[in-house]
Amino acid sequence: MIKRFGILLLVSTILLGSMSAAIRPKNVIFLIGDGMGMAQVYAAMVANGNKLEVERCKHVGYSKTYCANRFVTDSGAGGTALATGVKTNYGMIGMSPDSVAVETILEQSERNGLATGIVVTCAITYVTPATFIAHQHHRSMYEEVAADFLKTDIDVFIGGGRKYFETRKDGRNLIQELKDKQYQIAFDMDEVKKINSGKLAGLIHEDQPPAMPERGDLLSDATMTAINILNKNEKGFFLMVEGSQIDWAGHSNDVEQIIMETLDFDKTVGKVLDFAEKDKTTLVIITADHETGGLTLTDGNINQRKVKTHFSTKSHSGIPVPVFAFGPGAEEFTGFMENIDFKGKIEKLLKLK
Ligand SMILES: [Zn+2]
After folding, report:
1. Fewer CB in a 10 Å sphere around the end CB: N or C, the chain?
2. Rounded to an integer, what distance in angstroms lies between the CA atom of residue 246 and that of residue 263?
3. Does residue 352 sit within a domain?
4. Is there a domain that residue 346 lies in?
């Protein structure tokens, strides 16, 4: 009896040990579908044969997106809430409503010795990526945002926006300054894909990268390149990935384009989940900064993979957006959340100071 109890104790200790080891993630990959509400997700799901990669996430919730001074947010205030845990005013980047710079989860990760990265399908200086690394009064300050990248030690960033680093009003050549800081510079995806360690600045388009399908596998290829580099850091990494152009298709009320952009994002989600599944120490969080278009699906046909749509606005809407999570700590990201809750939860899980 005593012997059996001993074995039981041993087994349960091993089980508990492995459980507690699994609770805390080492890496966080935060994927944002800009303007991706539930209708965008479901339209893409129907078009894809009633399935998406994102369905592999069993922890699901909602995020309330309102900002400090408006019910309907923009990506500046929306991204700032996700990145800093502070609700700010419409159009602001990484600052509180009273214009005080607030540390982002990326900056905090870096300060704690984690490797950091940003991968987007817009200019790297555009709104959502800016909210994770820059601090400016207004979202349109692209050259100032480019200069803010130089103030950090971010390891990998890939997107468009080369001209904001190269052809500047202040005469600075930030490409040279990046080289001086030991960055490898890549101006197209072939060059990006060759890099597998060190620091990487991938400025692969002059301004905004093209829409799908012209863009090809930019998002998934750039994301996997970033993961491969960042994962070499023993202390772990924080990576933000944005499907930037779901929002733009929403502004155009173009459902075919919304579906293409959302499927491109979901393909990347699938590759990230494959990595996380094998790695077992990576928390994957997928959400949006707001919904765009006020999209509703008024009819459809699952077998024909078709949806009938109605848009209520050319702008954003105020409805909460879905949250999907996978991996250690995923259970923290369920139910109704405020968009300012993400930062604190990630900070706690990664034990950042
Ligand atoms: Zn928008």
Report:
1. N
2. 10
3. no
4. no
| Contact between residue 164 and residue 143 where contact means Cβ atoms under 8 Å apart | yes
Tell me if residue 75 is catalytic: yes
> How many structural domains is the chain composed of?
1
Distance of CA 170 from the midpoint of ligand 1 (Å): 29
Averaged pLDDT for residues 337-343: 98
Distance CA 177, CA 171 (A): 12
In sequence order, which ranges of the chain are alpha helices (DSSP H)? 2-23, 38-47, 75-84, 105-111, 127-133, 142-150, 163-166, 174-180, 189-194, 218-230, 246-251, 255-279, 341-349
Please name the residue that has the structure tokens 């094998």.
Answer: 278
Q: What is the pLDDT of residues 288-322, one digit of tens each?
A: 999 999 999 999 999 999 999 999 999 999 999 99
- Angle (CA) 186-189-190 rounded to 5° is 90
Torsion of CA 195, 197, 200, 204, to 10 degrees: 20
Q: Which of 63, 75, 109, 317 is catalytic?
A: 75
Q: Is residue 166 part of a domain?
A: yes
